[in-house]
Amino acid sequence: MRLTQFHLATVKETPSDADVISQKLMLRAGMIRKLAAGIYTWTPLGLRVLRKVETIVREEMNRAGALELLMPSIQPRELWEETERWAKFGGQLLKIKDRKDGEFCYGPTHEEVITDFARGELRSYKQLPINFYQIQTKFRDEIRPRFGVMRAREFLMKDAYSFHLDEACMQREYQNMYDAYTRIFTRLGLRFRAVAADSGAIGGTGSHEFHVLADSGEDAIAFTSDGNYAANVELAEAIAPGPRAAATQALEQFATPTQRTCEEVAALLGAPLATTVKSVAVMGEQGFVLALVRGDHQVNEIKLAKIEGLGEYRLATETEIIEHLGAVPGFIGPLSPKKSITVIADRTVAAMSDFVVGANATGFHTKGVNWGRDLPEPLVADIRNVVEGEPAPMGTWSIARGIEVGHVFQLGQKYAKAMGAEVLDENGKARTMFMGCYGIGVSRIVAAAIEQNHDANGIQWPNAIAPFHVAVLPLGADRSEAVRAAAEELYSQLTAAGLDVLMDDRKGVRPGAMFADQELIGIPHRIVVSDRGLAAGQFEYRDRRAAENENWSREGLVERLMAKIRG
RNA sequence: CGGGGUAUAGCGCAGUCUGGUAGCGCGUCAGCCUUGGGCGCUGAAAGUCGGGGGUUCGAAUCCCUCUGCCCCGACCA
Question: N or C: where does chain A have the smaller number of CB atoms within 10 Å of the terminal CB?
Fold first, then answer.
């Protein structure tokens, strides 16, 4: 591509409403332009990257045996009523009406449509297993879209759905997709990690998220020091500490007129935060529950929701807290509540002695508290987030940040059952199919790749998804016929070799501007053609990630470059 | 949905308090100059000051109203 034939839309000034680096760089490089909140136009430059990601995803899905199809983006309400998700999906579902007042939504996902398709198409176990996928624009009306295409409302997604006669077959395909995803992210040239994820209320035996590692990631991932296990922080198990020490202190209530948080109480006492216990009051299905974690820990809502009797719990209101405990929030604890309540202690809390809690009297806390002696033994469960460096089932936990770009999921029979998707087995008996679903955020990958690969000058694309592999920059082509001819010849050869080449043939553009644009848009390799170089019989090569130039002779240049790009 | 901002040239912003001929930087266009890190100089084009209503001799500026967008929070495969 000659730059004069292309639409380069770089800007010098950083857009003021961009709050993550990928969004800034995508706007400055002219890859995207915002049309409305969370809705973007992909420019020719940005689209080249998006298409490269899409192509790799498609090739690997095909290789894994999945079949591409394309479903409608507009879906009728009736289908969503069958799974009761018309109401349950919530505000993210963009609902629209046609001229006859028929109700539709813009598809945020396609379980209903594919299951409807499958129940019509699939009749015999002989047609199974089968895996259908599409790469398509989705819309989720996010409450607060932000971070550019990282969390846009309209986005490009690959979604696949597999159908099976039994669970074992579903699990085999799940593994097949897991392996395909590993190949995809490896080919994309990204540093990533597959992590065990919470499978939520749907249950099922498995779910993994694929995260691109980046400090700016929205999700915390926990992984063990031996590298063999990684989990969403929501799932990582906090193991029980050693046995409880014997009580040494007497129970003592003390005044904390203005100290409501564990931090404030610990500061007042001059004691470590880890000697305090935080009490979180919630209302579960079976009544009032007090969840206890150590002062320096955080309650994990997903773990808490899994406890028997809690289910769809919510935080207790101030009125409920006063009614059950007799004190206002900030001074509550498990000691002598006003009414009978359930106390659930985190494993760590259960192993504490001589600890500090709210006294259930406004303005007071109590120290020297001990299980068994001062209050009954609690129910014990793992209800907190793990923290950096603490013991894990194997080794110790480390915490990293990641951007979720893929998710594989064993759906089981949830949708097939709700929608009556059945096939006849070898005995002629109708059986509800098992399903798996597998998503990849294609447009999000573009942003995630930038979060992971950039410097002060701009983007540093991995070769596999760079909009162009190499930039040819002729310096002074306006006045040097030799430079112009050499650049043209090089451009032809590189293009003929199958590389994506961008030649900066703009008139009167100074070298500094050429370099700045090439670095901003992140072309991974550049070759400078100049009178100075030609006189020495050399071309100047620079890797986007390198600080220094290399002088390459004309001989073997194309091969040398190919080796760098194709690996 | 709650709270807080903001809307002025293609982009980024000042001007609004205290009403009186629409400004700056970047970009764009023309010319000169320059040619290894977003050069320099000269000139030019470009704005129903988010929409509607009101006050006033006169409104970007004051009042009312609507809308978009941004930030914080709650929420979220």
Answer: C
Residues A190 and A46 in one domain: yes
CA A36 to C1' B69 (Å) is 8
Query: Which nucleotides in chain B have some atom under 7 angstroms from a protein Cβ?
Result: 1, 11-13, 25-27, 33-39, 68-77
User: Three-class SS string for A297-352?
Assistant: CCECHHHHHCCCCCCCCEECCHHHHHHHHCCCCCCCCCCCCCCCCEEEEEHHHHCC
Question: Hey, is A556 helix, strand or coil?
Answer: coil
Phi/psi for A391 (5° steps) reads -60, 140
A424-450 per-position pLDDT tens digit: 999 999 999 999 999 999 999 999 999
- Kindly report the backbone phi and psi dihedral angles of residue A8, in degrees, each rounded to the nearest multiple of 5, phi listed first: -95, 130
pLDDT above 60: residue A190:
yes
Q: Are A17 and A26 in contact (CB under 8 A)?
A: no
CA of A320 to C1' of B71 (A): 34
- Considering the domain architecture, whether residues A124 and A262 belong to the same structural domain is answered as no
For the domain that residue A26 is a member of, what is the CATH number? 3.30.930.10
What's the structural domain count of chain A? Answer: 3
Does residue A269 share a domain with residue A160? no
Domain that holds residue A543: 468-566
Question: Do A438 and A413 have their domain in common?
Answer: yes
ipTM of the prediction: 0.89
